[in-house]
Structure formats: C-alpha cells, structure tokens
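tool_call: predict_structure(chain=1)
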Amino acid sequence: METMEKFIDNLSSMDLMRSEKMSLVQLIIPVESAHRAVSYLGELGLLQFRDLNAEKSPFQRTFVNQVKRCGELSRKLRFFKVQIIKAGLLSPIHPVVEPDVELEELEIQLSEHEHELIEMNSNSEKLRQTYNELLEFKIVLLKTGSFLVSGNNHAVAEERELSENVHSNRNYDEASSLIEQEMRTTDQSGLRFISGIICKSKALRFERMLFRATRGNMLFNQAPAGEEIMDPLSAEKVEKTVFVVFFSGEQARTKILKICEAFGAHCYPVPDDFSKQRQITREVSSRLSELEVTLDSGIRHQNKALTSIGYHLTQWMNMVGREKAVYDTLNMLNFDVTKKCLVGEGWCPIFAKAKIQEALHRATVDTNSQVGIIFHVMDALESPPTYFRTNHFTNAYQEIVDAYGVARYQEANPAVYTVITFPFLFAVMFGDWGHGICLLLGALILIARESRISTQACVQTYHKLGSFMQMLFGGRYVLLLMSLFSIYCGLIYNEFFSVPFHIFGGSAYKCRDATCSDAHSSGLIKFRDPYPFGVDPSWRGSRSELPFLNSLKMKMSILLGVAQMNLGIILSYFNARFFHNSLDIRYQFVPQMIFLNSLFGYLSLLIIIKWCTGSQADLYHVMIYMFLSPTDDLGDNELFWGQRPLQIVLLVLALVAVPWMLFPKPFILKKLHSEGRNYGMLMPSEFDPDAEPGPARERQEEFNFSEVFVHQMIHSIEFVLGAVSNTASYLRLWALSLAHSELSTVFYEKVLLLAWGYDNIVIRLVGLAVFAFATAFILLMMETLSAFLHALRLHWVEFQNKFYHGDGYKFKPFSFALIMDDDD
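tool_result:
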C-alpha cells in the first residue's frame, strides 16, 4: 500500500486534472499609478478583483462621473454605428489603427461628429419631407386630372344612382341629398371636391368613414399612386392611393378635412382649370429635380462623413470599452485612510504572480510615481475560484462539464476523461460508419474554416450564423471525435447505412439450406474461424439477427456502465487522497467499491466468462436467485467451479458495505469534535497547508451531529439505490443503438430498395430523394441530438455523481480580451 501511495505521489501533475492553485493578493496602489496599473492588469488578464464596495450603490462610488462619461461616449458610438448600418455602408476590412488619444480629446471629437450628423440628419429629413410632399402633389395632380375629366361626363348619373341606392327606403322629399338636389338642376356650380393621398392599407376604412360621416352625400374615387413613396420617419417605401372626394356644402367639407387629418391623409389643392394644372405640374417637376440633386449631394456628404468615422469606429469603441472597464474596476477598490492610495484585493493563479508584479512595476515606472505598488499574498477564509487552462480542443469538453456545475477548487476534473468517454458513448449509440463519415465531413469543414471565421473580418459573419451554428462551430472538435468513434463502432457493428460489408474477410457462417433468411429455416452453421473484426455480416437478415444483436449490445452496455462507474469511484479516492481525507477513503471509497463490484462487477465477470466459454447459462436466473436462494444449487447455470460460495461471500460483503458507509464516519467525526481535534476532513476542498505561503483555508462551521448523520444517510441510500438505477440507465446505450440501426434499416429497405425495384427513373429519383432527406434530417440530425443528450445524461448523472461536487465558481479575471468578446 505504501509503495502504491509513493507511486501515485511521484506522478507528474496534469494541468487539466486539477484547477490552478490560486492566491488571494492585496494591492496598495498610489492614486497617480492606479489607472495605468489597472490597464496593464486588464491587458494581462490574470487577476480577478474582489468588490470591496459591494455595500455601496453605483452612484456612491468614487469614479462614478468617469463611468458616466464613458457611458455617454458609448451612446454616441452606438449612434454612429446605427447611422452607418442605416446608410448601408460596409465596415472597413482593415480599420485604421492609430495611437490611442486621450479621453478628453476623444470626447470633443465625438461631440463634433455627433452634432454634425444630427444636423445633417435634420436637414436631410426636412428635404426628404419636402420632396415627398412635392412628389405626392405631382401624383395627385396627374391622377386627379383624369378623375375630373370623367367626373364632368358621368357625375350626374353616378350621383343619382348612389343617391337612389342609399335612400331607397327613406322618404324622398324629406331626406333627399344635397348633391342630388344640385344634380336635378342644370347649375352644377355647388359641386366641390377634395383631393389627396393616403396609405393603401387605410383606404378602405377611410372610404367607409367618409360614407358614414356624410350619410352617403359624397362620391369617392380612388386610384393607386403607381409608385412607392418613402416614409421619412420609418425610411421605408409605402404604397399609397390617390383619392378624390366630391361633395357639396361647407359642413361636409369640414367633416371630410377632419377625417383626412385623423387618418393621416395628405390633402392637396388641385385647380379646376386644366391649363393651371399643367402649369403647376411643370413647376412641381422642376422643383423635384432640384431637390433630387440637393438630396444626392447631402447623402454623398453624409456617407463621406460616416465612412471617415467608420475607419476609426472599432478603435474608438475598444478604447471607450477599455476605459469604462478600468473605471468600473477602480470603483471596486477602496481608498486608504490618507486618501492617497487605493487598496484592492483579488484572486490570481500562483504561476501569474511574477507577471502581475512585472506589470505593476511597469505602471510605476511609466507614471513616474515616487512610491511603488505594494503586492503581497493574504490568507483567505473563503474558497478560491476554479481556473482551468484550456485550448481550442479541450474548451468544448470543459464547457460540457461546467454546464452541470463548476468544479470545486482543485477537485478532480471530469473533463479529462470526458474528452474520450463522451464521444465514445455517443458512438456506441450512433454506431454506423456511413453516418460517421458524414459527421466527419461536417466536422472537417468546420475545422478547415476555423481560421477564417476566427479572424476579425469574419466576426460579424460568425454572429450571423445563428445560435445553433455557433454552438456547432464551438463544438467542432467534439463533433470530430464523435464522428471518428462512430466510424469505429460502425465497423464493429458492421453497418454502413445499415448495410453490412465483408471488409475484413469472409463470413464464418453459411446457410444450412437455401432458405437461410426465412424465419422457419434451420439457421446458420459455422464452418471457419470467427470473423476477424466486428459483427459477422452473415447475421444481417438471418433468423437470429435481433436476439444476437440485442444480447451483444445489452451486455456491452452493462460492461461499459460498470467500468465508467468504477472510474468515478476511483476518482473519489484520488480526491480524498489529494485533500488528505482518510475518513472518505476508509468509510466511503472502500465500501462503495465493495458494494458495486460485489453485485454488478460480479455480473460483468459472468458476462465475460459466458462470452469466452459459450455457456448457455441464464444470467437473469443467476442474479435473481443470488438474492432469493443463495445456497441453492446452480445446476446448468453454473459457469465456473466455486461459483456458489463466491456468490454467498459477495452477497455478505454487499450487505456489510451498507452499514460500513452509513455509521462509522458520523460517529468518528463526533468523537474527533468532542476531543477538540480538527475535523476539517469533513470539508473535501480543504487546502494543503504546505502548498504555498498564504493559502486559502475553509471557514470551519459549527459541528452538528444530526445534520452530519442525516447527510451521510442520504448519501449512502442514494449510492445503494443509484448503483442499481445507474446500471439500468446504461442500458440506454443498447436501446438507442438498436433504434438507430432499425431506423436505418427501415429507410434503406422500405424506401430506397422499394423505389429501386421499379423500372421507372422518376420513382427511383423520388425514392433516392426521400432516403437522402430521411438520412440527413432524421438520422444525422435528430438521432445525433438524441444520442448527444443521452451521453450527456450518462456523464452528468451516472458518472459525475460518484465524485464530483460541482459547487465551485469560475475564475473571471479582469481582461480586456474577455470584455471585447462579450461586447461582440
């Protein structure tokens, strides 16, 4: 045992296995160096500041005015960005990079640009409104002229018909309309009209309202404007309708004008004289031409100004974002008593101490400060943050683990094993080397475009991909290993879009008769050595195919599940050993290993022996009667000599392991507490006091025996029940693998082969299209997502609950790079 412990101690440390060792540090910074020091630390990105002013509101902090100024500058920059997008200008691929200007100078520049743009927008809006009014006037003039010509010829007949239809049920003498009375006379001088233009969507409601308000004493004519007119407020093209309302009387005119105003209709005066109409039309056309030239000139001038701003916009936004982040961080620091220094605290990795001290020294030199910045390590009572150094490959797997919960400080990181076990368990459910090749091609395309998408020029393109594609791109290396393992498992299952191939040689079986695949045949007989790799292709289509594959995949699922659960328990041993917690090793790790392997480890042994010997023993019967009748003779179900006494011993060990987990630990902790000794082994995340000077230490809580006992009882019951339920949960590997295989078979046989049986090119093409659609959207998308989620559950629940607490918090350093990424 001592030799084993020495061997483990001599193993080299792995960066991803344990989170980085952290130190709580204190900074005492002279006021004149504070801004520069925090800026250098933001560029370094290895120090997480603690908020020492958490009790203060944002408006009570020291640098609130500077934060407000930066917020105002950010507002102006967002305004510029909106204007650039509105103008349809593209961002420069290579923006101008110039030395950063002072904040005051930038503030003056941005104010000037904003004032200039607001003035240009105001002038442009006025000109556009005038242009739209003149354009509407011109359209009304042209359309109304045709109305008036037809109105002079047909007004009398139309108005008489309208009046008769409306007033047919009324007394003619008492309710005769004014227009009808005018029409009955030869004098038409009392007929008047109002012309204008209205949005097409409002025209029908507008006509109804006019009809009701005038009690039908009007004639409404309308015609489409013929061209869309830009709305100056929304800057969108709007379809409009020209209308002419004929009426009689001043009261009707007042009502019509009010209704026009309510509906947003624009009324324009059109003279009765056609010569005057033509003269006004020429004048309006002339003014429109002048306005078009003026508008084009204004747009060119505005675009020139926006282009000039666009070249510097990215740099300005980064600069303002950095300044705001610096002042937000300075607001987390405290002034000392003399008001000449700022005091800050934060967490940093131990390896970064030298870099931080170097950055602070540079800040002192660059600001010509007479007093240096003091940097020293403090003792901490709270648990440090968790920080893993990851790369493009390991980051996605770490995110999978962190989605369940961030690792407690320095506990074993499941991501180390998830890199392999996650894609492998996915592939067990998804195994088909044809589908695996499709996934591999997709993963390789994403990896090949990695450098292009990651460049600054394609950041906007990346954000336009949508959340699903962004997630897919982020997990491109997960997809790569999933596809590779799917190809491997597909070769083992011997399935290529559900079709078996003789890749590694000939089959070991042949048909006893010509009807081998018939359910009533005698089946297959073996005539040569076993197929060298994977499932023999002769099983496909045979009578024994489904029972054989079910048995194979079910037993394989149990073996994989028991192996992964054992790995989880072994990791709990390494956790307990790392934190010097001998109680967890003796009264948690040991009984858990005994209980799990006495039952399900023994079942795994029986499966392997049955495979090796070809025995016909019923393992269901063996496991059930191991509990019900452990002393009975096994008969034909005996797989090896001494199996019955071994089963009795294993059953006794499993029964002993339950109270072993439950009772000793709480009573030993109570005894240690009553003797006044340190019971810190209750806290698995306790620091190693010899690791570094000034370590973080857990705050010791008040000991409560009943709480500890209940916690231990819940933990023990959960493990005992979980050992059964978790093992059963791994059978999802068998179920999903079977479902994927059967779906592939159905699409191949009932769609592709069925269509190929017809001697018709159209039917064949339709069958091929349906097969391709089903393969792409059902097997490659829905089945991939299903297998992914089930593999996720197996890792989060069945694997990680054996050792992983996941109640830590992430290390979030003050970093300009992270801030810029969040802004993007």
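agent: Residues 153-189, 678-699 have pLDDT under 50 and may be disordered. Proceeding to next step.
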